[in-house]
Specification:
The complex is a heterodimer of chains A (about 325) and B (about 260). With about 325 residues, chain A is of the alpha/beta class. Chain A contains ten helices and 14 strands. Chain A starts with 7 loop residues before the first strand and ends with a helix. Chain B has one domain (about 1-175, about 210-250). Chain B has helices at about 1-15, 20-35, 35-40, 45-80, 80-85, 95-125, 130-155, 160-175, 180-185, 190-205, 215, 225-250. Chain B is globular and about 60 Å long. The interface of A and B includes residues 60, 97 and 104 of A.
């Protein structure tokens, strides 16, 4: 990372919650380290309960960490000035029942210090961009989850901030809405904005991220540029075989036993090896090879593979 | 200041448009007008019955509204994550608490004002233009309600709506009979319990002082200075409550 002040910097971050009648301690974050450079689109990936939302809430001042440091553009998150250039979309938000989206956006804008004239100019444009202009006069209690998500994204865009912290931005949206968010994140990235978002929709995250981090049970499992992360798990040879199930062929067991499989008729040879020996053995036997391809891992596959050792250890 | 006013305006808009609040206000107006029926049952006490019943209705419905809106204000916003989009902006949490309170106070001012105007009109129609004591009693009710609302916001800053409502209502009821509490404390022999009851007597707000209905009914004059002192007492007390409410809320994790 260059000498630029990071947009987000997290060092040894810890957070513990006390739950239940016995006030049992549950660690949500265990010494988390993270750095996001200005202009990056950063995907924060993890299963439910990984600590993504806890991290995000600490960054925007909703939770106080038990230990460690967190800063936005060099200012500690305990200083409200750290949030001047920042916007936040909560996960599955719900807003005021009796307010219209325009009234809510103006309220948020005033809290961010945007003057009345600027709000008058920005709000109609944002409502239109979010596809809410036809519902401008309706109270938000009549809105669907997807429409509320759009209001949430519109309020996040107020004042054109430098850092967007989005918690599950595609949650509650239909395919068209998800496409809109994906394009929006990509556009923000092209405009040099920093986007830090958590997501369960990994295929769509993969399409827009520059860097990713995998979080599990409050610990960072891996992080890096999307290309590096995918290449570390890519280029396996996928050998698709016709006929009877190849994995049950005893004569091939010495070769196939250690290989991953993607179904009864597909064998995956690690990228570091060549499939020549396997192909020779298959051709010598009753099997017919349908295809041999280099297989590129998806972010979802990488995520599951990265998570698997941790889950096995817990079991 | 702009942040506080924006939170206050939003709270006011949201509360005043709330259908439950509107329903309670309509019910309150119905109860106030029902004074005409009660008055018909009385002998030569028509105006006294209207005044007494009317002031009682204004006071009790204002307390219900203050507790109902006050205790749900913060909790509802945390539960629905509305608060997250607000507090993630560059504002202090104390600004949010103060803004919420001011919005609630403005809502109650409109609600109490509407009920008061309806009572005054009722008396006017019945042949008695409102006198200064009635206006003073209504002003005292308003001061009382602002204090009840501050109690509700204080408890709502750290407990659930049910507990906040229970605590606020409990303090209001005990605060209306503080003299009885003091008498009880004097009769108790156990020193710990005596000290506890005396402590409550000194700490809890004296809501009985705000209840001037009997004096209006019995034509006992009420001075402007007296009501002025009630307002100063109420504002001082609610200031302390808001200070501690904001202090606690600033330290709270919004899980």
């Amino acid at each position: 990372m260059s000498g630029q002040t990071p947009a987000i910097r997290v060092r040894s971050l810890q957070k513990t919650f006390r739950t239940g009648l016995r006030r049992r301690r549950t660690s949500a974050l265990i010494g988390l380290d993270l750095e996001v450079a200005p202009g990056e689109v950063f995907g924060f990936i993890g299963p439910n309960g990984a600590g993504k939302t806890t991290t995000i809430k600490i960054l925007v001042g909703l939770l106080r960490p038990d230990g460690g440091e967190a800063s936005l553009f060099g200012r500690p998150v305990s200083d409200i000035r750290s949030r001047r250039r920042v916007s936040y979309l909560p996960e599955l938000p719900d807003f005021y029942d009796y307010l219209t989206p325009g009234e809510f956006l103006r309220h948020c804008g005033r809290l961010s210090g945007i003057d009345a004239g600027e709000l008058k100019r920005q709000v109609p444009g944002l409502l239109e961009q979010a596809g809410l202009d036809a519902n401008e006069k309706r109270p938000m209690r009549k809105f669907s989850k997807g429409m509320l998500q759009r209001v949430g994204l519109a309020q996040a865009m107020l004042g054109d901030p430098d850092l967007y912290i989005l918690d599950e931005p595609m949650g509650g949206l239909d395919p068209l809405g998800r496409r809109w968010v994906k394009d929006l994140i990509a556009d923000l990235g092209h405009r040099g904005k920093t986007v830090f978002f958590s997501s369960h929709v990994l295929a769509e995250a993969e399409a827009v991220c520059d860097r990713v981090a995998f979080l599990h049970r409050g610990r960072l499992l891996a992080s890096g540029s999307l290309r590096d992360v995918l290449e570390a798990h890519t280029n396996a040879w996928e050998v698709l075989v016709e006929g009877e199930a190849v994995r049950s062929d005893e004569s091939l067991k010495p070769l196939t036993a250690r290989l991953d499989a993607a179904g009864e008729d597909t064998l995956l040879v690690p990228a570091a090896e060549r499939p020549d020996e396997l192909l020779k053995a298959l051709l010598a036997g009753p099997h017919r090879i349908r295809s041999v391809n280099q297989r590129h891992a998806s972010l979802e596959e990488v995520f599951i593979r990265t998570l698997a050792p941790g889950i096995e250890k817990e079991d | 200041m702009r942040a506080i006013l924006s939170v206050a305006a939003t709270t006011f808009r949201e509360s005043i448009r709330n259908r439950t609040v509107l329903g309670i206000l309509i019910l309150a107006l119905g109860f106030i007008v029902s004074a005409l029926l009660l008055a018909e049952l009385s002998l030569d006490q028509r105006l006294r019955v209207i005044t007494d019943w009317g002031l009682f209705c204004v006071s009790i419905f204002a307390v219900i509204l203050a507790i109902l809106i006050g205790v749900s204000l913060v909790h509802k916003e945390v539960r629905r994550k509305t608060l997250y989009a607000v507090l993630s902006r560059p504002i202090h949490r104390w600004q949010y608490v103060v803004g919420k309170y001011l919005g609630l106070a403005l809502t109650l001012l409109v609600e109490v004002g509407t009920m008061s105007v309806s009572l005054i009109l009722l008396l006017w129609i019945s042949g008695q233009p409102p006198g200064a004591p009635l206006i003073m009693a209504l002003l005292a009710i308003l001061a009382e309600i602002l204090l009840v609302a501050a109690l509700a916001v204080f408890f709502a800053s750290f407990t659930s709506p049910y507990l906040s409502g229970l605590f606020t209502l409990g303090i209001f009821v005990v605060g209306r009979s503080l003299e009885a509490l003091s008498t009880l404390a004097d009769k108790v022999e156990n020193t710990v319990l005596h000290g506890f009851l005396k402590g409550l007597f000194f700490v809890l707000p004296d809501f009985a002082d705000f209840n001037l209905g009997n004096r209006v009914v019995h034509d006992i004059p009420i001075g402007l200075g007296e009501v002025g002192w009630l307002w100063i007492y109420g504002i001082g007390y609610l200031g302390v409550l808001l200070f501690f409410g904001a202090w606690i809320f600033s330290r709270r994790d919004l899980v």
